[in-house]
Amino acid sequence: MKVTQEKLSGSRVGLEIEIPAEMSKKVYEKVVQDLSRTAKIPGFRKGKVPRQVLLQRFGSESIKQAVLEDLIQDGFKSALQQEDIPAIGNYQVLSSFDELVKHYQPGESFTFSAAVDVPPEVQLGDYASLKVQAEENPYDVAEVDQFLEERRTEKATLIPVEGRNAQSGDVAVVDYTGKYLPLEDGEESLEISGAQVSDFEMELSEGRFLDDIVKGIIGMNIGETKEVSVEFPDDYPREDLAGKTTLFTISLKDLKEKELPALDDDFAQEVSEFETLSELQSSLEQQFQEKAEQGATANIENAILKELLNYTEIDLPETMIQQEVETMLRQTLSQLQSYGIDTKKILNQETMAQMQQESRPEAINRLKQSLALEEIGKQRSLTIPADKLEAEIDKWKKQLAGQKFDPERLQEVVESDLMKEEAMKWLRENVTVELLPPGSLAEASEAEENVAESEVSESAATTETPE
C-alpha cells in the first residue's frame, strides 16, 4: 500500500493513502456477501438472494458507501502500522466522501487523504542557564505552641461566669433580632429575614461571627439588652444585606468561659499516641519542619516550571489539549462532590462549555511543562532507580485492587511520572535559584500592577478628546 506523509500544523500528520485494487475488490465482495447472508427480501430465502436483485434492492451507491467506510478505516489502520506512526486520537478524512463514492469502482485502486494528531516535537532552549526567584518558607517555632493551644481549646471545659461582664474568648448565649435601617425619617424598620434567633451560642473571638456583633457583646452583663449597628461588607453572600447598615437588638442570656486543660503528659496522652508532652512536642517540631521544607521546595519547583515555559516551544495537538481539559474538569467535579455539592444541579451545557474554555490556558501550560520535563529526562539520560519504580507500581496496584487496569499502561504512566520527578530534581540542582523573604514576590507583583494602573490613568488623563 502506497502512503505519502505530510507534516501539518498542530502536530498533525497528513496521509495520502492509495488502496490497492485487490483490497478494493476483496472488501467489496465481502460487503456484498455479508449483505446477501443477512438481507430479508420477499420471495427469496435468506442467503439465496441473487447479486443483481441485491444491488437493485439496496442500490449501488449505498453499497459503495459501506465498502468505502470499511476500506478507509482498514486502510488507515494499515497505513499507521506500515509507516509506524504513533497516532493520538481519531483520524479525520480530508477527502470529500461524496467524491470518493462517485469515483469509486470495485476492483480498482483509489486514493484518499486523512490526517491524525501525533506526539509533538519538543524544542528546548538553554534551560541549564535558567534563573528563578522563589520565596523561602521558613519553619516557625511558634507553630508548635499554636497547634497545642488549638488542641487545648478543643478540649476546654465551659464553666459559668459570675460577677463580671463579657470578655474576648468567652462563650455567650444570646437572643438577637436584626432590622434594616429605615431609608427615611419616620419610616418603619423592617426585620431581616432569618435574623430572629433565640439561645444562640457564639464564641466572642474574631472571625467566629459578625465582628460588629462580637465587639458589641463584649462588655455586656448577663440580662442586659443592647442595640448594635452592623455594617455588612459589599461582598457579603446575601445580596439583600451586602453593603447595608443594619441594627441588631441583642440580649445576653448566659455567659461561660473556657477552662483549658493543663499542658502536661496527661494532655499529650489524650490528644496523641505519645506518652509524654516532650515526645509530642518533638514530633510536632519534626512535622512542621518537614512541612516548611516541602513548602520551600514547592515554591522553587513552581518558579522553575513557570520559567521553563519561556524556554519551551511545542506545537500541541488539539487531541492532547482536549484530553487535558477533560482531566482537569473531572478533578474539579470530583473535588466539588467531595464538598457535598450536587454538580448535576449547577452544571449544564453552557456552564460546561465555559469551564472548558476557562481551563484551556492552564491545560496548555501543564502539557508544555510536563512534556518539557520528559524531554529533559531524555536529553540528560536520566534513569529511574529500579527499586523506586517497582515500589511505585506496587503501591498503585494495591490502590487499584479489585479494579480492571492495563499493567503495561500502568507502568508507562508510573515511569512517565517518575521521570518527570528526576528531571525536576536535576533542574533544582543545576539552575540558579534566588531565595527571597516570604511575601516578597507578591509585594513586587502588586507594586507592578499599581504602576501599570497609574500609567494607564495618567495616559487617559492626558489624552485629548477630539471635538
From TrEMBL:
Molecular functions per Gene Ontology: peptidyl-prolyl cis-trans isomerase activity; protein folding chaperone; ribosome binding
Record region (Disordered): 438-467
PROSITE patterns, sorted: FKBP_PPIASE
Pfam families: FKBP_C (PF00254), Trigger_C (PF05698), Trigger_N (PF05697)
UniProt source species: Merismopedia glauca CCAP 1448/3
EC numbers, comma separated: 5.2.1.8
Cellular component GO terms held in the UniProt record: cytoplasm
Low complexity bias locations: 457-467
Protein name stated in the entry: Trigger factor
Record has Repeat as a keyword: no
Catalysed transformations (reactions): [protein]-peptidylproline (omega=180) = [protein]-peptidylproline (omega=0)
